[in-house]
Amino acid sequence: MRRTPAGIPVVSCVLAHESRQIEAGIEREVKLELPAMAIGELAQTLCAAAPGAKVSVAGFMAAKSARNRSPVLHLTIIEFTEGI
User: Fold this and answer.
1) Burial bucket for residue 43 (CB in 10 Å: 0-12, 13-18, 19+)
2) Pairing mode of beta strands 2-3, 71-82
3) Is the pLDDT reported for residue 69 higher than 60?
4) How far is it, in rounded angstroms, from Cα 29 to Cα 18?
């Protein structure tokens, strides 16, 4: 965890997703990793989680920075489904 110049906690992580989806009538396996970050109280909550904990999240996508346009999921809700 790091802190902004204003002292607000920020934590970055990578979320892994695995599921089976139907596309064009065919089942396919979907796997991906997505960089994410949490700020404030949510950052402290995320830091307390065990690596590999199963979560359900919500948030919004934004560019990593003004110079790096790679997407990052900014978490606004974290619900632990198991493994906290």
Assistant:
1) buried
2) unpaired
3) yes
4) 7
State mean pLDDT over 20-25.
96
pTM, two decimals, is: 0.84
DSSP for 15-30 reads EEEEEEEEETTEEEEE
- Residue 35 CA to residue 16 CA, distance in Å, equals 9
Average pLDDT of the residues of the chain = 93
Of 20-24, 57-61, 79-83, the poorest mean pLDDT is in 79-83
Evaluated on CA atoms 62, 65, 67, 72, the torsion sign reads: negative
For residue 21, the one-letter residue type is Q
Give the pair of three-digit tokens for residue 8: 């607000």
Alpha carbon distances (Å) from 36 to 21, 31, 62: 23, 16, 10
Q: Tokens in use for 50?
A: 């065990």
